[in-house]
Write a structure and sequence with these properties.
The complex is a heterodimer of chains A (441) and B (159). Chain A has 441 residues and is mainly alpha-helical. Among the domains of chain A are: 43 residues, no CATH class; 218 residues, Cytochrome-c3 Hydrogenase, chain B (Orthogonal Bundle), CATH 1.10.645. Chain A is built from 20 helices and eight strands. Chain A is globular and about 90 Å long. Chain A starts with a helix and ends with a helix. The mean pLDDT of chain A is 87. Chain B has 159 residues and is α/β, with parallel strands linked by helices. Chain B has one domain: NADH:ubiquinone oxidoreductase Nqo5 subunit (Beta Polymerase, domain 2). In chain B, helix 3 links the parallel strand 6 and strand 7. Chain B is elongated and about 60 Å long. The model of chain B has no long low-confidence stretch (mean pLDDT 86). The chains are: A mainly alpha (441), B alpha/beta (159). At the A-B interface, helix 2, helix 9, strand 6, strand 7 and strand 8 of A face strand 3 and helix 3 of B.
């Protein structure tokens, strides 16, 4: 079928498809350009290539089971998505989260925010020809992901932040890995700033290109670094403080013109603030005592001994469950049953534990919030990540809708590239940080 | 952080269009009649209420009820740091409502998505067509009577 752009196109112009698979576009997305020579007269954005029915799927999954799907919305900062979903559910359920879990959540979301910005800027610089910037940033990201991997067990799609807290306590020696990550990221940021900030080629492609006015940015529903690059100071962490953000010190960097360079520079300065936040929270989180593994007993042994009375020894768990032992639970997970998975020690060794485990996972049981609807949002890498959940009192959401920040940002792309050159699409698109997973859902 | 609450003034000024007001889990929720939606929204966008940002717009399908579809809008006021949820019910037989694309630019895409997923029509929308699904797709996938596992491949799937 002919689209509006095709119908309205002048006969002497050229129509050009950029995408859906284009080497300079990190994501599957198509933009149709009406060109007069190099100049873009009109543009039409076509999205939906990565649509996988996220919202429909969630309606058919229990509240606990749909958590891994949430990771895959913004796969560059999955922990913030987890956080947004978990906190929306906590608001609906009226659950309070232990202090240590809140601190860990802040640490984790700041680490992923940095990795989100690093990925965005690295890709943007690479598409403009600055490949070394990409390498420096990917290297720094590895240090950040080391911290995430040691604690959560996986690098990207972690499903670590759970309704009611976090899955496991921080790993042993987390402080030194956080310090390394902060130090290496600072170094990478300094190198990148040296390469790009006064680089004439980079400036030519970003200064004054893709600029948006304050009013337009607001009207397009922009949030996050893109909105702040236009000079509007709105950050969910400051406007509606959640977790322990109101007790932490950080600034909200602003841009002036809302062009590609400002979006770059706001993200660069924001990473520095996130590093500050990482340092502050890791100063707040008390170190836990290392575990003595020697006198732990196997679950079968515990079952045998437990016929008469509960054995005093601790029970050995699979290394996958490191950090989520029963005695850690009060520090990282809420005590309000049945919101969290019952401790595995109980499940393996007692009848009651097994029953409560089944009650948590069985169809029609588990987490059943009261009837009603709720909206909650957190500051994601791209802006305000909001969840709107309608509950009908069962164990599955009646409706779950995600407010994806880059959906709103990208809706302005047509306007930003109109009247510019084809080459300007690349830095403009790059600075917007389009993430197919959350855009198309 | 939170600045003055103008909810009483909103209720007084738009009393004709407002069906009910409630607070749910700390969120302010206005239920309005669909005929009054556009007037109310343009009033809310202007001073002194200043809800300048349309955070989100979506729809919920209540298959069993008479007013099957419910449009849900989230507004945000930057100057007063307040959020407001606005709901309006649409009948299942003729689910149409005024488009907000004249007020907010992102309403264009948001409404196209709702049209795509729920088949709700928007009066006054400049270019109402599917956003995420392809043109040849039949039905509206987020409606409750659309089967979850149904597949409509454009080219036949290989075994």
């Amino acid at each position: 079928m002919e689209t509006k752009l095709q119908k309205d196109a002048r006969p002497d112009t050229m129509l050009l498809n950029m995408g859906p698979s284009h080497p300079a576009m990190h994501g599957t997305f198509r933009i149709m350009l009406e060109l007069e020579g190099e100049k873009i007269l009109n543009a039409e954005v076509d999205i939906g290539y990565l649509h996988r029915g996220f919202e429909k799927t969630c309606e058919n999954r229990t509240y606990f089971n749909l958590l891994p799907y949430v990771d895959r919305l913004n796969y560059v900062s999955p922990l913030i998505n987890n956080l947004g979903y978990a906190m929306t559910m906590e608001k609906l359920l009226g659950v309070r989260v232990p202090e240590r879990a809140q601190q860990i959540r802040v640490l984790m979301s700041e680490l992923t925010r940095i990795s989100d910005h690093l990925t965005c800027l690295g890709a943007m610089a690479m598409e403009n020809g600055a490949f070394s910037v990409f390498l420096y940033m990917m290297k720094a990201r590895e240090y950040l992901w080391d911290v995430v991997e040691f604690t959560t067990g996986s690098r990207m799609l972690t499903s670590y932040i759970r309704i009611g807290g976090v899955r496991a306590d921080l790993h042993e020696g987390w402080q030194s890995s956080v310090r390394t990550a902060v130090r290496e990221t600072r170094r990478a940021l300094r190198d990148v700033a040296g390469l790009l900030d006064k680089n004439q080629i980079f400036l030519n492609r970003t200064r004054g290109i893709g600029s948006i006015s304050k009013e337009d940015a607001i009207s397009h529903g922009w949030t996050g670094p893109c909105l702040r690059s236009a000079g509007v100071s709105y950050d969910v962490r400051k406007a509606h403080p959640y977790l322990i953000y109101d007790r932490l010190e950080f600034e909200v960097p602003l841009g002036e013109q809302g062009d590609n360079y400002d979006r770059y520079s706001v993200r660069m300065r924001e990473m520095e603030q996130s590093l500050r936040l990482c340092e502050q929270t890791s100063g707040l989180i008390p170190d836990s005592k290392p575990r003595v593994k020697a006198d732990e007993i196997e679950p079968t042994e515990a079952l045998r001994l437990g016929r008469l009375q509960k054995p005093p020894q601790r029970i050995r768990l699979s290394p996958n469950l490191e950090g989520s032992e029963a005695d850690v639970y009060p520090r990282i997970l809420t005590g309000d049953a049945p919101v969290v998975v019952p401790p595995k020690e109980d499940t393996y060794t007692t009848m009651e534990g097994l029953i409560s485990h089944f009650l948590f996972f069985m169809d029609g049981y588990g987490i059943r919030p009261p009837k009603g609807d709720v909206y909650f949002s957190v500051e994601g890498g791209n802006g305000e990540v909001g969840f709107y959940i309608v509950s009908d009192g069962t164990d599955r959401p009646y409706r779950l809708h995600v407010r994806a920040p880059c959906f709103h940002v990208l809706s302005a792309l047509e306007q930003l590239v109109r009247g510019r050159f084809v080459a300007d699409v690349i830095p403009t698109f790059g600075s917007m940080n389009m993430i197919g997973g959350e855009l198309d859902r | 952080m939170e600045k003055e609450d103008l909810i009483e003034e909103i209720r007084a000024r738009f009393s004709a269009g407002i069906e009910s007001y409630a607070e749910s889990l700390g969120d302010q929720v206005l239920v309005v009649r669909r005929e009054n939606l556009l007037a109310l929204m343009s009033g809310l966008r202007a001073a002194p209420f200043d809800y300048a940002v349309l955070l989100d717009a979506t729809c919920v399908d209540f298959l069993a009820s008479e007013n099957r579809f419910e449009m849900v809008y989230h507004l945000f006021s930057l100057s007063r740091n307040r959020r407001l949820r606005i709901k309006t019910s649409l009948p299942g037989g003729n689910p149409v409502v005024d488009s907000l694309s004249g007020l907010w630019k992102n309403a264009d895409w948001l409404e196209r998505e709702v049209f795509d997923m729920f088949g709700v029509g928007f009066i006054g929308h400049p270019d109402l067509r599917r956003l995420l699904m392809y043109e040849e797709f039949e039905g509206h996938p987020l409606r409750k009577d659309y089967p979850w596992r149904k597949e409509q491949p454009l080219i036949p799937l290989k075994d």
